[in-house]
Design a protein that fits this description.
single chain, 14 strands, eight-stranded mixed sheet, Hypothetical Protein, Haloacid Dehalogenase-like Hydrolase, Chain: A, domain 2, alpha/beta, globular, phosphatase activity, six-stranded mixed sheet, magnesium ion binding
């Protein structure tokens, strides 16, 4: 199995990838019986839009492992207790400059009084995004994640503050840019990949993972073959077996090509 993060890893700075090269490599992966998995903090509906011709064949560990879909079939869906949702929203109300998206199985939700620029930014990553008058009133969906956007340059400080304020209710993790995801403890990309490994009988020694950010750390540690982009976070680089070319230098596809030749 090959599992790739998207933003900062598989996708370049223009939010795209070399589609012709990938199409060639994907056919080789299929011929060799290698599963290709997208493992991202982003929404399932956004992720599958990058692979319109083959999305029904692929597996997605979406929302940092909270929602796992394989070939159109739901494999796993996490759920945060409604009481904890309400508690966390109350705590977040005291964080100045933090914008909140509440993520669920059917849609993501954003307060209609958020700045228009942030709503526009969010819509790039959440293809199903509903504006609501009050996030406290969102109760008719399976909710599994909070996605936060924090003030520029305050990521590390904000992660510490969130951890202290939230305790063991949810776990804050950096997901690149100025974004933080609040996850159920124990839910992460490696948890989602383990569900697929169990389904297919694939060991960690047969798994290659590619990432760049804090939310990739568990899956980087899990895999027998782990790669972090040269543009990746220093903490993630330390955990990887190898640092490869950046997302703007086609690092993932060049390394996959190399691995397939070795096969």
């Amino acid at each position: 199995m090959i599992a790739v993060d998207m933003d900062g890893t598989f996708l370049n700075s223009q939010q795209d990838y070399d589609r012709d090269k990938f199409a060639q490599l994907y056919q080789q992966m299929k011929q060799k019986g290698i599963r290709f998995v997208i493992a991202s903090g982003n929404q399932y509906y956004q992720l599958k839009s990058f692979f319109p011709e083959i999305e029904s064949e692929l597996s997605f560990v979406a929302e940092n492992g909270a929602y796992v879909v394989s070939e159109g079939e739901e494999i796993f869906c996490g759920e945060i207790d409604q009481g904890i949702i309400q508690e966390v929203l109350e705590i977040l109300a005291d964080f100045d400059g933090v914008h909140v998206i509440l993520c669920g199985k059917n849609s993501a939700y954003i307060a209609e009084n958020e700045p228009e620029a942030f709503i526009e930014y969010a819509s790039n990553y959440y293809h199903r995004l509903k504006k609501v008058s009050d996030l406290f009133q969102v109760t008719d969906d399976t909710l599994f994640k909070f996605a936060l956007n924090v003030p520029a340059g305050q990521m590390e400080k904000m992660l510490v503050r969130l951890q202290e304020a939230l305790g063991d209710k949810v776990r804050p993790v950096s997901s690149g840019h100025e974004d933080v995801d609040l996850m159920l403890p124990g839910i992460h990309k490696a948890h989602g990949l383990a569900k697929l490994q169990e389904r297919w009988g694939i060991s960690a020694s047969e798994l290659a993972t590619f990432g760049d950010s804090g939310n990739d750390l568990e899956m980087v540690k899990l895999a027998g073959y782990s790669y972090v982009m040269s543009n990746g976070h220093p903490k993630v680089k330390v955990a990887a077996k190898e640092i490869i070319l950046s997302n703007d230098e086609n690092g993932v596809l060049l390394k996959i090509e190399e691995l397939l030749k070795e096969q």
